[in-house]
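To the wet lab folks,

You asked to see what we're planning to order before we commit. Fair enough. Below is the target structure as tokens, and below that is the sequence we designed to fit it. If anything looks off to you, flag it before the synthesis order goes out.
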């Protein structure tokens, strides 16, 4: 492992938008089943529930890798430190394992945010720091400003959304890639191509999507509130996709991702410039379009 990188478990549990009892129970069950990475964010408003689930599981704190994320509205230096402390208080932990910037926020200079994030790490509030939803140019800029290693970029990736240039950029900077929406919000399970590939191994479409990612060294954080699916999503280490199957899935994912790459910047521009009623219609249309394409709009 290169110096300054983090050992992030390949499989973790996503918890957004689980809340309340369901969240507590799911975290507890996941840890009992063997999951060792739990992903949350201040924006999910479930850090208290996640903390309760961690304690209920009885698993030793040092055996669990906890990721949380700072919301872009708290990227100003003083607010960032406050937000990190608030997360710790809600989780009832003395240290986070990985603290991420949830999305880039062009309103606050990245240099200032990075300085604050690195300060929070040096103060011992978190073991590691990283980013989420950062594109290639954002990463280059972030690395330039960071005085501590940025160990991860958490991005949307699944068998319908491939990001080869972005993952290559992360690797060049020794950053791990963690894939969110790794089963395309359940869509991977219904995909005929993935189901066909999975049949040979007795695996589901969801498991094939997860396996395609972990086989590339990408960590995954699927979310489910169903116990049987917790075990299903975890059972991806007892089969191996062939090179031909990996390429087949990649080629589908790349074709769909290219469409998303064209549409996303146009959407961002329209959301900035159009009046509110028009942007509401646009948001609905965008969600429908991405669903058709297999992407999962945030
Ligand atoms: N950094 C970011 O900006 C960002 C953005 C989005 C998400 N995330 C993180 O990534 C995590 C995962 O992403 P996600 O929740 O959006 O999408 P996901 O994990 O791809 O999909 C979750 C959906 O798939 C269903 N599902 C789970 N396992 C299944 C299986 N084996 N077969 C069929 N359906 C299954 C779940 O329903 P049931 O509950 O009914 O099983 C749920 O509706 C989130 O929880 C969050 O922690 C991060």
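Sequence we intend to order:
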């Amino acid at each position: 492992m290169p110096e300054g990188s983090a050992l992030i478990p390949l499989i973790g549990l996503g918890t957004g938008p689980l809340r309340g009892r369901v969240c507590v129970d799911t975290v507890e069950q996941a840890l009992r089943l063997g999951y060792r990475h739990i992903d949350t964010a201040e924006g999910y408003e479930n850090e208290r529930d996640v903390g309760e689930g961690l304690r209920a599981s009885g698993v030793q704190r040092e055996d669990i890798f906890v990721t949380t994320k700072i919301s872009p509205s708290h990227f100003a230096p003083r607010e960032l430190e406050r937000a990190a402390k608030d997360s710790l208080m809600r989780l009832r932990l003395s240290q986070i394992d990985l603290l991420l910037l949830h999305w880039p926020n062009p309103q606050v200079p990245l240099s200032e945010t990075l300085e604050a994030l690195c300060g929070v790490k040096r103060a011992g509030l978190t073991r590691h720091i990283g980013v989420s939803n950062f594109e290639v140019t954002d990463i280059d800029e972030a690395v330039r400003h960071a005085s501590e290693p940025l160990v991860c970029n958490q991005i949307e990736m699944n068998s319908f959304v491939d990001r080869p240039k972005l993952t290559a950029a992360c690797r060049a900077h020794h950053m791990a890639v963690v894939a969110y929406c790794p089963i395309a919000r359940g869509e991977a399970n219904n995909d005929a191509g993935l189901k066909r590939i999975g049949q040979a191994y007795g695996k589901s479409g969801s498991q094939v999507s997860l396996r395609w990612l972990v086989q590339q060294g990408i960590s995954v954080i699927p979310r489910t509130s169903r116990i049987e699916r917790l075990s299903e999503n975890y059972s991806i280490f007892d089969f191996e996709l062939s090179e031909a199957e990996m390429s087949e899935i990649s080629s589908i994912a790349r074709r769909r991702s290219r469409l998303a790459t064209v549409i996303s910047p146009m959407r961002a521009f329209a959301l900035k410039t159009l009046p509110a009623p028009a942007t509401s219609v646009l948001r609905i249309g965008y969600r429908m379009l991405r669903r058709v394409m297999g992407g999962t709009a945030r």
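Structural context that might help your review: The beta strands are 13-14, 37-39, 65-70, 96-101, 126-132, 150-156, 176-180, 219-220. The radius of gyration is 19 Å.

Thanks,
Computational group
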